[in-house]
Design brief:
This protein is an alpha+beta fold. The chain contains three helices and 14 strands. The chain has a six-stranded antiparallel β-sheet, covered by helices on one side. Strand 10 and strand 11 form a beta hairpin. It is elongated, with a radius of gyration of 23 Å. The N and C termini lie far apart (53 Å).
Length: 220
C-alpha cells in the first residue's frame, strides 16, 4: 500500500471520527448553556450537521431539545420539545450569549404549561390579583381579583382557551362569571408572543387542554 493511499485512508477515518464527535460536542455545549440559563435539570440535546464543518458557520440540518422543569422568559415550563431544521445562527453574538438567527429554517416546539405556572405568570403581569388558573380538558377556570375604579372585586370565571386571530397570543374567553352564563365578555390575554422578544417570528399553531395542564404548539 502506497504512502498516499495510507494518508487518504487516515484522512477518511479522521473525518468519520470528526463527523461523529463534533455534532455531539456542540450538543453538549448547548445542553450545558441551557441548564446554566434556567438552573434546571440538564436537557437532552441532539445536533445533526453534514458535513460537520457546517457547524463552524452556524449552519445545521437538525437540532432537537428536550427540556423538563425549566424556566424560560418567566415561564415555569413542565416540558418542552423543540425541533429546528435547516437553520443558521450567527456565531459572533452566540459567543456573547445572544441568539441571533441568520436563517430561520423550520422550527416547531411543544410547550407544556401547568395551571400553577400560568397563575404565576399572570400574577407577574399584574392585571389580575392573586390569580388561580384551573385547566380541564373541557375548559379553563380563572379566579382572582380585579380593580374596578377604587374597588377590588373577586373574579371567578370559566371559559375556553384558544390562540388569537393573528396567532400571536393565547386568549382566555370567559363564558360565565360566578356560574352565570354570559353572551359576551372581554377576552383576557394570558400569553403574548410579541412581548417575549423571541429571536425569530413564531406563531401559536395549536392549543390542547389536558388535566391541569395545556400543551401549546408554536412554530414558524
Amino acid at each position: 500500500m502506497s504512502r498516499i493511499t495510507q494518508v487518504l485512508i487516515g484522512l477518511v477515518l479522521l473525518a468519520g471520527v470528526a463527523q461523529w464527535l463534533v455534532p455531539r460536542w456542540a450538543a453538549g455545549l448547548l445542553a450545558h448553556e441551557l441548564s446554566r440559563l434556567d438552573h434546571g435539570p440538564k436537557p437532552r440535546v441532539a445536533v445533526e450537521a453534514m458535513p460537520f464543518w457546517e457547524l463552524f458557520q452556524g449552519r445545521f440540518q437538525d437540532v432537537t431539545i428536550n427540556l423538563q422543569d425549566a424556566t424560560v422568559h418567566s415561564f415555569q415550563i413542565g416540558r418542552l420539545y423543540l425541533n429546528w431544521a435547516h437553520g443558521q445562527v450567527a456565531l459572533g453574538p452566540l459567543e456573547k450569549g445572544q441568539l441571533k438567527v441568520g436563517k430561520p429554517g423550520h422550527l416547531i416546539m411543544t410547550v407544556v404549561l401547568t395551571g400553577p405556572a400560568l397563575s404565576k405568570f399572570i400574577a407577574k403581569e399584574g392585571s389580575i390579583g392573586h390569580p388561580r388558573v384551573v385547566i380541564t380538558p373541557s375548559g379553563v377556570g380563572l379566579q382572582g381579583q380585579v380593580k374596578l375604579g377604587n374597588a377590588t372585586v373577586p373574579l371567578n370565571t370559566h371559559g375556553s382557551l384558544a390562540e388569537s386571530k393573528n396567532h400571536q397570543a393565547l386568549i382566555f374567553h370567559p363564558t360565565s362569571i360566578d356560574g352565570i352564563e354570559l353572551p359576551a365578555v372581554t377576552d383576557v390575554v394570558l400569553v403574548n408572543l410579541k412581548t417575549l422578544n423571541l429571536p425569530m417570528p413564531l406563531a401559536i399553531q395549536h392549543v390542547r387542554l389536558q388535566p391541569n395542564q395545556l400543551a401549546l404548539t408554536i412554530g414558524n
